[in-house]
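Appendix C reproduces, verbatim, an entry submitted by the partner laboratory led by Prof. M.T., so that reviewers can inspect both the input and the predicted structure.
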Amino acid sequence: MTLWPIETLLPHAGRMILLDRLVSWDAESVVCERLVRRGDPFVDATGLPAWAGVELMAQAIAAWNGCGILAAGGSVRPGFLLGTRSYRADADAFAHGALLRIEAIRHFHDEDGMGAFACRIDSDTAHAEARLTVFSPVDPTPFLDPRHNRLDSRGTAP
């Protein structure tokens, strides 16, 4: 199992990479970590707001996807968070200095790129969990290029 640097696994760049490192991964799951630091994106006076946990979970899934792609000799590509079900957090924020363990376990994933994952975030003082639905198409271009996403006056694509 290769543990690539997190920035090589995600299509994100710079400060929008919210994970610090990949801890482990296999065909069914991934574990990543994040230390909550003052001055980081989304961190406020109380810490990292619990609502940002959804993005941490989504990035962990993206890291899992990146691991599989790189292991197969491919290039990392963008994916899409389609939905979140039953997000629950037992605190309003993840505290400054907290080491977060973000885990995603695959429940479903098909060859077209649709997937569902059970996710959790654990620290010494907080816990969050949710089920995320994601889409990672082999070719994301049609979903990213605005020329492919416009409809004419009849509601059809040009």
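The radius of gyration is 17 Å. Additional entries are available on request from the coordinating office.
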